[in-house]
Amino acid sequence: MDDDKTPEAVQEADTAYDALRALAHLTRATHPAPDVYRILGNLKNFGNFLPQISNQLAQGLVKSLEEYDVTEYEGKDPAASVALAGEHLARAAKLAQQMGEELALAQNAIAGQGYRTAEERRQLEELRRASNDA
Questions:
Q1: Side-chain-side CA neighbours of residue 12 (13 Å)
Q2: What DSSP designation does 29 have?
Q3: What is the DSSP annotation of 37-100?
Q4: Do residues 92 and 49 make contact, with C-beta atoms less than 8 angstroms apart?
Q5: Nearest C-alpha neighbor of 82 from the set 63, 67, 68
Q6: Contact 22, 64 (CB under 8 A)
Q7: 3-state class of 113 per DSSP?
Q8: Per-position pLDDT tens, the chain of length 134
């Protein structure tokens, strides 16, 4: 299927994957708490959206059995596969919600942190030394 016929939901999932993959690379670097706070603020929302997405996908699979002529290889029952996928999606939804809650707790744990750059710290130390010498 070419991009013109790729469903928008698939395209958006591809975009989300690309963004998370890039974030995985970018978070190898050291980031101060205020930046991590903002990152966690966005990531914790996956805990809200992934359960909704998982539930909607499960519902859509069930409806697809009625709307399409669904086939499966080796004569397996498509309804059984959809039911099994639904069970896995329900568990994934619960885990995603838990993940979101844990990310929110991590974010709250660092909410009060600030930082100075190495240059700002050096300047502050110089000011302190100068005021002590005066």
A1: 4
A2: S
A3: HHHHHHHTTHHHHHHHHHHHHHHHHHHHHHHS----GGG--HHHHHHHHHHHHHHHHHHHHHHH
A4: no
A5: 63
A6: no
A7: coil
A8: 555 799 999 999 999 999 999 999 999 999 999 999 999 999 999 999 999 999 999 999 999 999 999 999 988 999 999 999 999 999 999 999 999 999 999 999 999 999 999 999 999 999 998 888 87
Return the structure tokens found at 88.
């896995």
Cα distances (angstroms) measured from residue 129 to each of 8, 121, 133: 61, 12, 6
Supply 72's token pair. 């499966």
Phi first, then psi: give them for residue 76, nearest 5 degrees: -70, 160
Query: Could you identify the residue written with the tokens 């966690």?
Result: 40
Take residue 109 and report the two structure tokens written for it. Answer: 């744990």
